[in-house]
Amino acid sequence: MSFVRHSGILLHPTSLPGPHGAGDLGPSARHFVDWLATGRQSLWQVLPLGGVGPGNSPYMSPSAFAGNELLIDLEQLQQRGWLDADDLRPDPAFSAERVDYARVAAYRLPRLKCAASRFLAHGDAAEHARFAGFCRRMSGWLDDYALFMALDEQHRGSGSVWQDWEPALARREPGALRAAAQRLAAECAAWRFCQWCFHEQWARLKAYANARGVRIVGDMPIFVSPHSADVWARPDLFQLDEALRPSAVAGVPPDYFSETGQHWGNPLYRWPAHVAEGYRWWAARVRHTLAQCDLVRIDHFRGFESYWAIPASAGSAVEGAWQPGPGIAFFSALYTALDAVAGEGLPIIAEDLGIITPAVDALRKAAGLPGMRILQFAFDGDAPDPAANPYLPHNFDPDTVVYTGTHDNDTTRGWWQALPETTRDHARRYLAVSGQAIHWDLIRAASASVARMAIVPMQDVLGLDGSARMNRPGVAEGSWTWRFHWGQVEAWHAGALAELARLHGRVPAGPAHA
């Protein structure tokens, strides 16, 4: 994959400022794009754009295709006459610093349903035509998603997963599906409306970013949530038992992030079934994601070479074992399905962190994908050969994306505060710095490196400590809530980023779509 040099910021839209409990696709998102452009940043990386699942994780969405309804800007709905001004009065309990997802959902979802009801009853002919066109284009996933969400809402009081629904619905008997779709027609229409609003708002935001020279870097989890429209609609594509429950689940063995490994709980793919249909489901998923983004990071790339399979009955991730993934045949199918030119590569970044073997690295290179390097992993003064660490900038390949840290890492200040002195000493000597502003030291090192893309979490630009960390892998609760506010952003921040972009040849040449 060939890129000119770029730099950018990692920030999920929920972390944006805004009056309604969480960041969304409204004015603050455009303000952020303007700020990126002022700082000569040409990349905005986001986390997966789907709805959140258990623990509020965007990596456990109820759909691999649907957008997060909670990101819809309510002000735009009010401007179109589907909400009243009174509907937009914020809940006084909302925090400017943390997202309370339950409170945000309790505030936003009733207003979205109200807007749907008003649109469906009173929307003009042109709007209804656009809505109908969207529903037709997206019917391959939208119909199943709308019915899944309507049924899930109906069963939510019992706390059940879809496998606990009435057997005829769980097993998708045609008569039961038709009856449910008729009975829940209004609810399904509301969920379709929400997806239309999300996709329209996101498309406008992406177009605005592209016009300002900012490309969107999306994020695609390799696995899907067990409680999702995807698994319910296509159980044949997943490793499920006779009761339609996962027979084995995804995770990783012990690594840097967790001494006991991670038990993610996602159902594993039945890869022979994907091969039999020519990877059609996967091609549709990647194509849909790339319609929303300019390029996409695929999470847990190593799972395409081999994946950690944990028996469903296992008590921990340690009891798992490696199983072979689809390998290069998967990416060859994507090249064909997406009409990609082999010399140019797919617009995909491989998240190749964790336990990376020579076979995983060979697969990434064969697929023509850039990998990732994390500067927080670079320094270990006690290693037998510290200079050989692949995360040190002098060992980078140009076809690389470098980060100070990702959403799974501590902030750079938090990381620095927790380091042993030997590691700090190694970092200070390597970077030739005092470490007093270590976050900017790493930002500068990333920018100066040969890596074609350098991306920095917003927390590091602001110099925030570990309390601003986005995610703690292996910890079920308390993550994904961080927000910033514009009072934390000083004029010199954009100026410093722009200066680094100019010094290191990362100034964007023009609009992202050019």
Assign an overall shape. globular
Structural class based on helices, strands and sheet pairing? alpha/beta
Number of strands: 12
Main beta sheet: strand number and arrangement?
8 strands, parallel
Low-confidence stretches: none
Strand content: 5-15%
- Number of discrete helical segments: 18
Q: Helix amount, in percent? A: 25-40%
Overall average pLDDT:
95
In short:
The chain is an alpha/beta fold and 514 residues long. It has 18 helices and twelve strands.
Considering the chains and any ligands shown, give keywords for the structure.
about 525 residues, alpha/beta, 4-stranded antiparallel beta sheet, 18 helices, globular, EC 2.4.1.25, transferase, 4-alpha-glucanotransferase, glycosyltransferase
Any overview of this molecule?
With 514 residues, the chain is an alpha/beta fold. The protein contains 18 helices and 12 strands. The strands form 2 sheets. It has an 8-stranded parallel beta sheet with strand order 9-6-3-2-1-12-11-10. Strands 5-4-7-8 form a 4-stranded antiparallel beta sheet, with no helix packed on it. Helix 4 crosses helix 5 and helix 5 (139-155) crosses helix 8 (185-211). The two termini are 17 Å apart.
Question: Strands, helices and their partners?
Answer:
Blueprint: E1 6-10, H1 27-38, E2 43-45, H2 74-79, H3 101-122, H4 125-137, H5 139-155, H6 167-170, H7 174-183, H8 185-211, E3 215-220, H9 229-233, E4 248-252, E5 262-267, H10 271-276, H11 280-292, E6 295-298, E7 306-311, E8 321-324, H12 328-337, E9 348-350, H13 358-367, E10 371-374, E11 400-403, H14 412-418, H15 421-431, H16 438-448, E12 453-457, H17 458-462, H18 491-503
Parallel strand pairs: 1-2, 1-12, 2-3, 3-6, 6-9, 10-11, 11-12
Antiparallel strand pairs: 4-5, 4-7, 7-8
Helix pairs in contact: 3-8, 4-5, 5-8
